[in-house]
Amino acid sequence: MRFVKMQGIGNDYIYIDCFRQSIPQDPAALAIKISDRHFGVGGDGLILICPSENADARMRMFNSDGSESEMCGNGVRCVAKFIYDHRIFRKRNLTIETGRGVLQLTLDIENGKCQSIKVNMGEPILIPETIPTTFVGSPPLEVPLVIDGVEFKVTCISMGNPHCIIFVDELSDALVLGIGPKIETHLAFPKKTNVEFVRVDNREEITMRVWERGSGETLACGTGACAVAVAGFLTGKTNRSITAHLLGGDLRLDWSETDNHVFMTGPAVEVFEGEWPDC
Question: Which domain holds residue 92?
Answer without folding.
Answer: 2-122+266-275
